[in-house]
Amino acid sequence: MFGSYLHSGSPVQQANNRQGEAVQVAALEREALQAGARGDAQRANRLWQSILAQAPDHPRALRSLSHAAFQAGDRAQARILLERLVAVDGRDVQQWLNLAVVCLAMGDDTGEEAAIRGALTVDAYDLVALLMRSRLYIRQGKRQAAAAACAAVAAVAPPLQSLAPDLQPAVREALAWHEAYSREFGSYLDDFLAPHLKALDGENLGRFRDSLDVMVGRKRRYDSQPAMFHYQGLAPVSFFERADFPWLDAFEAATGAIRDEFLAVMGSSEGFSPYINYGDDQPLAQWAELNRSPSWNAFRLIDNGEPVAGNAGRCPRTMAVLGGAPQPDQPGRTPSAMFSVLKPRTKIPPHTGVSNVRLVTHLPLIVPADCGFRVGNDTRLWEEGKAWVFDDTIEHEAWNNSEQMRVVLIFDIWHPGLSQAERAMVTAMSAGINAFTQTAGGFQL
């Protein structure tokens, strides 16, 4: 009665047969790998063929034999094996890429595109697959598709120097193609829009022009990136319209008197300190060269919300004019005001400020040639007695390439986009932070 359970067709016997076949296939696979490691390709291929005879969907056998067929010039057989491989497995990007390469060698654009799509379905960020797609579309003359594909390469690719040397030329080619396409696109839109802009002559279309330049790659998009506190809903504006700050008239009118006070304190050299002053235990990042350096000095009039004893009293005219500015009220933090002195041949590296609840004002006092200032995409030259207001939470930098010092009165003001109620809440929040940390300035805003 027990004999029926040992029949070759019984479930037990079938399981035993499958287990035996698996053991045999595993042994053959070990032999094939060892033969390949010895460089005995012929024996390795025979063993892989034996494996396929017993296990037709064996992934490693299919991959190895497809490679051997491609190396031997039998592209058709390589494709058959790879198509079977992606059908039974398809979880490895390289399987699809190998199929795409075979299709490319066979001149089958449709098959190549389908294989690349399969690779990107497995990993939408695979750089090699993205490069192959960009090259396919460029070769086919599909300009719009190629532009999108090259843009994807640009978005995914790390810096060229960090790439493997064999990938660098392809990435460089995709980036160069996309740059050329963007230039052509931008020139076309310039010509197309010229009559529309002419018809609207006199209108303020600066924001539209900037947006167009960002879209076609002529400019970068810069957003507010405060180091500490970001107030939601305030649009990132690099330089604000001068007309929005009529109280600056008093500052510009007093430029001569303010400069005279600076020159008086400059003569004694007392009260100046490095603008950057980090401790030895703090990360310096881009400030290593300027930390504790007299190359960028400051004569602080108001610091952390309070007049600086010994300094403010020496500049009564400047302090009086500062009293007419809408200075932010953040106990222990703001307002702030100082004479900023940039020595010859000194560059302030790109950086961002701490909070967009306040803006920064410059009143240039001494400006030699070859000095400049950039906020986001906008670069300007200081003019003595001409003030401007900017958002320092947008990346900005400054330079003095001359042989003379550059001097600017710098002070902060409330962001005009904040209502009186919002300003009151920011002031209260600052006081709350002080109470929690039991210190003023423990959390910079």
TrEMBL record:
Chain ranges of the Aspartyl/asparaginy/proline hydroxylase domain: 255-416
Annotated Pfam families: Asp_Arg_Hydrox, TPR_19
Protein name, as recorded: Aspartyl beta-hydroxylase
An example molecular function term from Gene Ontology annotations: dioxygenase activity
Family, as annotated: Belongs to the aspartyl/asparaginyl beta-hydroxylase family.
GO cellular component, one term: membrane
Residues forming coiled coils: none
Domain of life: Bacteria
Keywords, sorted A to Z: Dioxygenase, Oxidoreductase
